[in-house]
């Protein structure tokens, strides 16, 4: 049923895009990624060989024709800010286009940093209002997916919605970790609960639920009022999923938008690919997805490219071709600047500038930028941290009990290798 309060607008899609401001929430600590986020914010964590996680949200914006983007930062923002400036500073300011980092700042009358996702946007209301947008898209900077936001914005306008929430279908058990919505037959949200023990399910499907992706389209006047009211509510945790959206459902026109309708699919794929890479197992798994023969998320698909900034490096190099010492990689992604010297790499992803010395066996592993592996190492199902130097003869991923003595090992059996942990190993 179409909303009677907000009939469909006659605004053209071109005008709607021009009147839309995007806010990317990129200030999270990312503590579940352990040492990978000790010095950088989660959205700045490298992904996929040459990218950073935030590049997916930024690429979705640019590819969707959205040219006004504020990136809200807080923790460990330096690397993220440098990356946005270097890789995304090419829009034309004289045309009102920008991708800007908006760092957290303590303003007059406030001594607090961001208290929640809604508070982060509230503290930047003056910057938002100054842009005079008709619509505001709020999204996170820490997920891996390709989405045409134009489709979601068009859906929002056509339904006459006050707010639209992008969602995916998950099993009822998986849904317990997300914000979950109950909807009617028109996808109007009638219930929204954060991380429920007993999630509401889809009409006609008692085993599946709609879960929030943390992507919202707001009418600006609605957003301003709701954020202002929330800021004056002492009992609120000032979070979109916990407070703002649930409070809007009873009185406003809040609709679910199915990600399957706006996902940019790779050729031949039917899966609407979206991954939360906020902990080590999911981060490892999403990187491993890219090593498949035909990945569900196909980064070689030029119809919807993922853009980034990366250093200019020479091509990857494989050296030695002796029976006992052959440089090779199979079912793997090897980035520029890598040298694989007389070692075998299988089902692995090597980021830029990785060096692997001779007689090594690397399997099912992710090696981040600038990592170096000494001779005669065996590494299986590991993540090697950025710039980490693995000493010759190191064996990780063969004996789980031994690995757990010195390294962080996940429930999924992924071992994180850092210089600090390597220093704990017994000296030969």
Question: Would you write up a description of this structure?
Answer:
Strand 4 (68-73), helix 3 and strand 5 form a beta-alpha-beta unit. Helix content is 22%, strand content 27%. It has 12 helices and 31 strands. It starts with 12 loop residues before the first helix and ends in a 6-residue tail after the last helix. It folds into 2 domains: 13-291, Spore Coat Polysaccharide Biosynthesis Protein SpsA, Chain A, CATH 3.90.550.10; 317-423, UDP N-Acetylglucosamine Acyltransferase, domain 1 (3 Solenoid). It comes from Magnetofaba australis IT-1.
CATH homology superfamily name of the largest domain? Spore Coat Polysaccharide Biosynthesis Protein SpsA, Chain A
Total beta strand runs: 31
Binned strand content: 25-35%
- How far apart the termini lie comes to 72 Å
The CATH class of the largest domain is identified as Alpha Beta
Class from helix and strand fractions = alpha/beta
Sheet with most strands: 9 strands, mixed
Radius of gyration using CA atoms only = 23 Å
What general outline do the C-alpha atoms trace?
Answer: globular
User: Number of domains in the coordinates?
Assistant: 2
Low-confidence stretches: none
**Residue share in helix:** 10-25%
Counted by DSSP, the helix tally is 12
Mean pLDDT, to the nearest integer, reads: 92
InterPro entries: ADP-Glc_PPase (IPR011831), ADP_Glu_pyroP_CS (IPR005836), GlgC_bac (IPR023049), GlmU/GlgC-like_hexapep (IPR056818), NTP_transferase_dom (IPR005835), Nucleotide-diphossugar_trans (IPR029044), Trimer_LpxA-like_sf (IPR011004)
GO molecular function, one term: glucose-1-phosphate adenylyltransferase activity
Enzyme class: transferase
Family: Belongs to the bacterial/plant glucose-1-phosphate adenylyltransferase family.
């Amino acid at each position: 049923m179409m909303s009677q309060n907000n009939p469909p607008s006659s605004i053209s899609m071109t005008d709607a895009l021009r009147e839309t401001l995007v806010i990317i929430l990129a200030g999270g600590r990312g503590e579940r990624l352990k040492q990978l986020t000790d010095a950088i914010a989660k959205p700045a964590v490298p992904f996929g060989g040459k990218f950073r996680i935030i590049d997916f949200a930024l690429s979705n914006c640019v590819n969707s024709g959205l040219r006004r983007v504020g990136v809200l930062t807080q923790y460990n923002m330096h690397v993220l800010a440098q990356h946005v400036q270097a890789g995304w500073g090419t829009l034309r300011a004289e045309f009102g286009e920008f991708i800007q980092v908006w760092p957290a700042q303590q303003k007059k009358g406030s001594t607090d940093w961001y208290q929640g996702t809604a508070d982060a946007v509230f503290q930047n209301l003056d910057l938002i209002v100054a842009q005079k947008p008709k619509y505001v898209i709020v999204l996170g900077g820490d997920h891996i997916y390709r989405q045409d936001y134009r489709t979601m914005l068009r859906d929002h306008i056509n339904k006459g919605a006050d707010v639209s929430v992008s969602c995916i279908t998950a099993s009822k058990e998986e849904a317990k970790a997300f914000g979950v919505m109950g909807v009617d037959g028109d996808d109007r949200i009638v219930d929204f609960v954060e991380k429920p023990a007993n999630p509401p399910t889809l009409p006609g499907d008692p085993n599946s639920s709609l879960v929030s992706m943390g992507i919202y389209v707001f009418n600006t006047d609605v957003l301003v009022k709701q954020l202002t009211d929330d800021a004056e509510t002492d009992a609120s945790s000032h979070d979109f999923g916990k407070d703002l959206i649930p409070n809007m459902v009873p009185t406003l026109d809040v609709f679910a938008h199915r990600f399957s309708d706006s996902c940019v699919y790779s050729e031949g794929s039917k899966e609407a690919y979206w991954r939360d890479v906020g902990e080590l197992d999911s981060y490892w798994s999403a990187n491993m997805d890219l090593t498949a023969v035909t990945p569900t998320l196909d980064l070689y698909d030029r119809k919807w490219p993922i853009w980034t900034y990366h250093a200019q490096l020479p091509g990857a190099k494989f050296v030695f071709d002796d029976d006992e010492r052959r440089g090779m990689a199979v079912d793997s992604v090897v980035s520029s600047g890598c040298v694989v010297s007389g070692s075998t790499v299988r089902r692995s992803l090597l980021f830029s500038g990785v060096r692997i010395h001779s007689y090594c066996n690397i399997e099912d592993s992710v090696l981040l930028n600038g990592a170096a592996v000494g001779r005669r190492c065996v590494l299986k199902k590991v993540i090697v941290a950025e710039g980490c130097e693995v000493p010759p003869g190191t064996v990780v991923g063969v004996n789980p009990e031994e690995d757990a003595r010195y390294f962080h090992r996940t429930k999924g059996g992924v071992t994180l290798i850092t210089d600090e942990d390597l220093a704990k190993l017994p000296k030969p």
